[in-house]
Amino acid sequence: MIPLYWFAYAVLKIVNPFCFPLTIVGRENIPAKGAFLVASNHISNMDPPLVSYAVHRPIFHIAKKSLFNNKIFGLLLSSVGAFPIQREGSDVSAMRECLRKLKAGYPLALFPTGTRVTGEQAAAAKGGVGFLAVKGKVPVIPMKIIGTDIVMPKGAKGLQKHPVRIVIGKPLNVSASQSYEETASEILQKINSLQ
User: Fold this and answer.
1) Contact assessment for residue 98 and residue 64, using Cβ atoms and an 8 Å cutoff
2) Reduced to 3 states, what is the DSSP secondary structure of residue 84?
3) Residues 109 and 48: beta-carbon distance below 8 Å
4) Beta bridge partners of 24
5) What is the value of pTM for the model shown?
6) Of 24, 36, 53, 88, most Cβ neighbours within 10 A?
7) What is the pLDDT along the chain (195 residues), one digit of tens a residue?
8) Alpha-carbon distance 108 to 98, whole Å?
9) Cα separation of 190 and 150, whole Å?
10) Distance CA 128, CA 132 (A)
11) What's 28's DSSP letter?
């Protein structure tokens, strides 16, 4: 399904004790099978591979379309389970692909804020996570990543050694009675509340 997933997992397992000693709390909340939606905060470019590592199952990601402009890098992204989305406006085809993945039984990860948010920055959740949670009819797994903004801050060319903590919350079953924006906001609040 995702050709390089377990290779990337093995590399992270070897590297993390030296570069970013990693603690994962709540891994038992990840379903052992079937589709689900992981919704995580986003504070560093390190976050997508660490979400995959924490889930310990091959998982699809959406990534901004511009990352696929370089054909070699785009192929690498596809090999670890990423597919493109146009961040500006509504990318209907990407949303349909997300729903196809979920309905086929695959887990999917995304960042409700749609971009990196660090420090005291305030950011609202995009409605897309609410749409997928409701239309996909799958559990939402909230996840909080702490410390990657220090290991690899925005604009950094290298890594700074610092502990990283990932907290995985209990699955959320969202209500279809709310708007997608309200559901997205509720999911983001749950992520932010994780310690």
Assistant:
1) no
2) strand
3) yes
4) 166
5) 0.90
6) 36
7) 687 889 999 999 999 999 999 999 999 999 999 999 999 999 999 999 999 999 999 999 998 888 899 989 888 888 988 888 876 667 788 999 999 999 999 999 999 998 888 765 667 888 899 999 999 999 999 999 999 999 998 888 788 999 999 999 999 988 888 899 999 999 999 999 998
8) 7
9) 23
10) 6
11) G
For the chain, counts of helices (H) and of strands (E): 7, 7
Contact 23/165 with Cβ under 8 angstroms? Answer: yes
Q: Name the β-bridge partners of 84.
A: 63
Half-sphere exposure of 160 (CA within 13 A, CB side): 12
Question: Which residues, including other chains, have CB under 8 Å from residue 45's CB and lie 6 or more apart?
Answer: 116, 152, 154
DSSP-assigned states of every residue in 50-118: HHHHHHTS--EEEEEGGGGSSHHHHHHHHHTTEEEE--SS--HHHHHHHHHHHHTT--EEE-TTSS---
CATH number for the domain including 9?
A: 3.40.1130.10
Residue 66, Cβ neighbours under 10 Å: how many? 10
Cα–Cα dist 149/108, whole Å: 23
Identify whether the C-beta of residue 116 lies closer than 8 Å to the C-beta of residue 43: yes
For the chain, the domain total comes to 1
Q: Which domain holds residue 20?
A: 5-193
